[in-house]
Design goal:
heterodimer, A: 443 residues, alpha/beta, Aconitase, domain 3, six-stranded mixed β-sheet, five-stranded parallel β-sheet, 15 helices, 17 strands, 31% helix, globular, B: 250 residues, two-stranded antiparallel sheet, 9 strands, 17% strand, 4Fe-4S (chain A), metal-binding (chain A), 4 iron, 4 sulfur cluster binding (chain A)
Chain lengths: 443, 250
C-alpha cells in the first residue's frame, strides 16, 4: 500500500483496502476557523441536538485567523460564536483573540490556522487531520493525511469523530538534484501544478519523495503540500524523517507512528523532476497553473507586492525575502506588504538575525528597504476579505504575491492581476517594480 | 476527470439538508421534521418537509419540478472552465453563516457575483435576490479552489436546482452532496460550448438526458451511479443513522 493508503487502513481499522473504497475513518484532529466554525457548529447542534457534546474536546482545534483585524461586525461576531461554543464545550485548544487593536495583548491568539497547527504540535505523522479549509493539506508535510472539508462534514465529525472518505490513488513526484540557491519550494510546486494543471490531481494523493525533498525544511515541505489543492489534489504527503522528528521534539509529547509507502506499492503515475535544471517561476493571472518563467515576465510592470499567507508568510519565507533585500541594499519601488502568518512568525521577523547581515533582523532589513511595517498576523488579503482588510486590492492593479490562488477577484478586485511567486521572486520584483527573476540579486 | 461514482454511500436513508429545507423538492424526500436554531441561539424553528411539489411563485417562470420523477426545467446559465468558489461566492460575503436562515438568504443573493465582466449577463439581476436560471451549465473543474460550503449553499439559496458540469472539483462536489443544495450532474459532452445562457432546458434524471428546447438538441448525462442513492437518501447524517453509526433522531 502507499503511505496514504496505509493511513486510511489504520484509521479505518481495515487491514486491506484499495483506491476507490469508501471507508469510515477515525479523525485525530479537526480544525476550524472563524469563517466556517459558526456554520459547522450550527449543523452540529441541529443534527445532534442543542445539548450535544463534541466527540472529544481535546481533538478539536479552533483557530480564528481569517477576518480578524476588521471593523466588520459580522466578522467580529463570528469570533464571538467560536468563543461561546468553546466555552460551552470546554474545548481544550482555542486560540482566542479579544483585543483587535493589539494582537500582542492576546496571549492565546496564534494566527493562520495551518501554520498554528504545525507550530503548536497538532500535526503528527500517520494521523488523520481534517479542517474546514482547503489548505488543510499543508499538514501532509508531516507524513499524515490532511484534507479540507465543508461545514456539513465538519458538523458530522464534531459529533462522531468519524468521516466517510474514499481512498485516493497516489501520484508520485520524485524530485531529485541539488536545489539551486535561487529556488524555493514555491517554485517546485508551481512547476508541478503547471505540469499537471489545476485538475491534474483531482481526487488523488500527491506523494513527494526524492533527494531534493529530503533536504527541504519542514516549512518548505509545508509550502509544497499547501498548494496540492491547487492541482485538485485530495492530499499531499512527504514521508516523515529525521527533519520531521526534530521539528516535533519540542512541540508534542503525544506518541505517533509514521507510515511509509511499500517498495511494491502501486502508484497511478510517477513524475520525475531534475530540480537542478529548474528556474524561478510565476503563475500568471488568472490561474495557478498558468506557469511562466519569471525572467520571461520582466516587462510586466507591477503595482504592489504581498508577502504573507500560509503559503508564503512563514518565518523562512520572510528570511528569504530579507536575503534578497539585503543583497540589493536598495529600496523597493512599489508598496510592499508583509503579513506574518502567526504571532511566532511576527516575533521571528523582529528577533532572528538574518545570515550575512551582521546581526540585523528581518524587520530592520525590511524597514531599510522601505517595505510596509509587518502587519498583525492573520490570513490578511490572501483572499480579499472584508473591505477594510489590510492590503486588500480594492482597485484593479498588478500584484506579485506569495499566496496560493490568483483566480479573478481573489485578493479583492475582479480585475486585479495576481502573479503567484516565491518570496525570493516577490522581493526581487518589489525592488524593480517589474516581475523579476531573483537571480538579478542573488547571483 | 471526476466521475459521478466518486462517492458511494448506502441507500435508503432519510434526507437531511444542512440548511433550510426548501419547498422545491430536489429529491425523493421522505417527510421529515427538522428543527434547528440559528447560529446565535434564536428560537427553534420547526419545519415539516412537504412530500409533493409546491411550485414557488417567483417573478420569473415558476419551477415545474415534479416528484418523484426528478425532472428539472427552466432557463440555463452557462459558465466556462475552472469556475472557482471565489467566483461563486467572493470571500467578503463569507461572514454570513449558512446555518442562520436570514444569512442563508443573503448568501443566495450574492451567488456568482464574482464572475468577471466578460460575463455580460448576471446570474442574478440587479435589485433581485433570486436567480431566474434554475440550471447552471459548466465546463471542467467546476467549484475548484476554496472549500467554502457557502458556495453550493449560495447557488441553492439563489434558486438554482442543478449544475451540469463536465467535471467537478472534489470538495465542492462533496459539499453539494452533503448539503443537498444543488444536484451535481455530469455531462458526457462539453455542454458549455453547446448551450447559451437563457436557453430553455429540461433535465430528465431517469432518462439521463438534457434537452435544450431552444436549440432542439439532446445530450446524454453520465450515470448517477452511487450519487443517486446518496442524495435520495439524504447524505452522511441519514446514512450514518441507517447504519447505526449514530443514534436515530427522536
Amino acid at each position: 500500500m502507499t503511505l496514504t493508503e496505509k493511513i486510511f487502513s489504520r484509521a479505518s481499522e481495515k487491514p486491506q483496502l484499495s483506491p476507490g473504497d469508501n471507508v469510515w475513518v477515525n479523525v485525530d484532529i479537526l480544525m476550524t476557523h472563524d469563517v466556517c466554525g459558526p456554520g459547522s457548529f450550527g449543523i452540529f447542534k441541529k443534527e445532534f441536538g442543542e445539548n450535544a457534546k463534541v466527540w472529544d474536546r481535546e481533538k478539536i482545534v479552533i483557530i480564528p485567523d481569517h477576518y480578524i483585524f476588521t471593523s466588520d461586525e459580522r466578522a467580529n461576531r463570528n469570533v464571538d460564536i467560536l468563543r461561546d461554543f468553546c466555552m460551552e464545550q470546554n474545548i481544550k485548544y482555542f486560540y482566542d483573540i479579544k483585543d483587535l487593536g493589539n494582537f500582542k495583548a492576546n496571549p492565546d491568539y496564534k494566527g493562520v490556522c495551518h501554520i498554528a497547527l504545525a507550530q503548536e504540535g497538532h500535526c503528527r505523522p500517520g494521523e488523520v487531520l481534517l479542517g474546514t479549509d482547503s489548505h488543510t493539506c499543508t499538514a501532509g508535510a508531516f507524513g499524515q493525511f490532511a484534507t479540507g472539508i465543508g461545514n456539513t462534514d465538519a458538523g458530522f465529525v464534531l459529533g462522531t469523530g468519524k468521516v466517510l472518505l474514499k481512498v485516493p490513488p497516489t501520484l508520485r513526484f520524485v524530485l531529485d538534484g541539488e536545489m539551486p540557491d535561487y529556488l524555493l519550494a514555491k517554485d517546485l510546486i508551481l512547476q508541478i501544478i503547471g505540469e499537471i494543471s489545476v485538475a491534474g490531481a483531482t481526487y488523488k494523493s500527491m506523494e513527494f519523495v526524492g533527494t531534493t525533498v529530503e533536504r527541504l525544511s519542514m516549512e518548505e515541505r509545508m509550502t509544497l503540500c499547501n498548494m496540492v489543492v491547487e492541482a485538485g489534489g485530495k492530499n499531499g504527503v512527504v514521508p516523515a524523517d529525521g527533519t520531521t522528528f526534530k521539528y516535533l521534539e519540542d512541540k508534542t509529547s503525544l506518541p505517533y507512528e509514521p507510515v511509509y509507502s511499500d517498495e511494491k506499492a502501486s502508484f497511478l503515475s510517477e513524475y520525475r523532476f531534475d530540480i537542478s535544471k529548474l528556474e524561478p517561476l510565476v503563475a500568471k493571472p488568472h490561474s495557478p497553473d498558468n506557469r511562466a518563467l519569471a525572467r520571461e515576465c520582466k516587462d510586466v510592470k507591477i503595482d504592489r507586492v504581498y508577502i504573507g499567507s500560509c503559503t508564503g508568510g512563514k518565518t523562512e519565507d520572510f528570511l528569504a525575502a530579507a536575503k534578497v533585500f539585503l543583497a540589493s541594499g536598495k529600496k523597493v519601488k512599489v508598496p510592499t506588504f508583509l503579513v506574518p502568518a502567526t504571532q511566532k512568525v511576527w516575533m521571528d521577523v523582529y528577533t532572528l538575525p538574518v545570515p550575512g547581515s551582521g546581526g540585523k533582523t528581518c524587520s530592520q532589513i525590511f524597514e531599510e528597504a522601505g517595505c510596509d511595517t509587518p502587519a498583525s498576523p492573520s490570513c490578511g488579503a490572501c483572499l480579499g476579505g472584508p473591505k477594510d482588510t489590510y492590503a486588500r486590492m480594492n482597485e484593479p492593479m498588478v500584484c506579485v504575491s506569495t499566496t496560493n490562488r490568483n483566480f479573478p477577484g481573489r485578493m479583492g478586485h475582479k480585475e486585479g492581476q495576481i502573479y503567484l511567486a516565491s518570496p525570493y521572486t516577490a522581493a526581487a520584483s518589489a525592488l524593480t517594480g517589474y516581475v523579476t527573476d531573483p537571480r538579478e540579486f542573488l547571483e | 476527470m471526476v466521475t459521478a461514482s466518486s462517492i458511494s454511500f448506502g441507500a435508503n436513508s432519510t434526507f437531511t439538508s444542512s440548511s433550510i429545507p426548501k419547498t422545491k423538492p430536489l429529491f425523493n424526500i421522505i417527510p421529515h421534521s427538522l428543527k434547528f436554531t440559528t447560529g446565535n441561539g434564536r428560537a427553534a424553528v420547526t419545519f415539516q418537509r412537504p412530500v409533493s411539489v409546491i411550485p414557488k411563485a417567483t417573478s420569473a417562470d415558476s419551477r415545474a419540478t415534479k416528484e418523484p420523477s426528478r425532472t428539472f426545467h427552466g432557463l440555463c446559465y452557462v459558465v466556462g472552465d475552472n469556475i472557482d468558489t471565489d467566483q461563486i461566492i467572493p470571500a467578503e460575503y463569507l461572514t454570513l453563516v449558512p446555518s442562520n436562515p436570514d444569512e442563508y438568504e443573503k448568501l443566495g443573493s450574492y451567488a456568482l457575483i464574482g464572475l468577471p465582466a466578460t460575463y455580460t449577463t448576471r446570474f442574478i439581476d440587479e435589485n433581485e435576490t433570486k436567480t431566474k436560471y434554475k440550471i447552471i451549465i459548466a465546463g471542467g473543474n467546476f467549484g475548484c479552489g476554496s472549500s467554502r460550503e457557502h458556495a453550493p449553499v449560495a447557488l441553492g439559496a439563489a434558486g438554482c436546482s442543478a449544475v451540469v458540469a463536465e467535471s467537478y472539483a472534489r470538495i465542492f462536489f462533496r459539499n453539494s452532496v452533503a448539503t443537498g443544495e444543488i444536484y451535481p450532474l455530469e455531462s458526457e459532452a462539453r455542454l458549455c460550448e453547446e448551450c447559451s445562457t437563457g436557453d430553455v432546458v429540461t433535465i430528465e434524471m431517469a432518462e439521463r438526458r438534457l434537452i435544450n428546447h431552444t436549440t432542439g438538441k439532446e445530450y446524454k448525462l453520465k450515470p448517477i451511479g452511487d450519487l443517486g442513492p446518496v442524495i435520495d437518501a439524504g447524505g452522511i447524517f441519514a446514512y450514518a443513522r441507517k447504519t447505526g453509526m449514530i443514534a436515530s433522531r427522536n
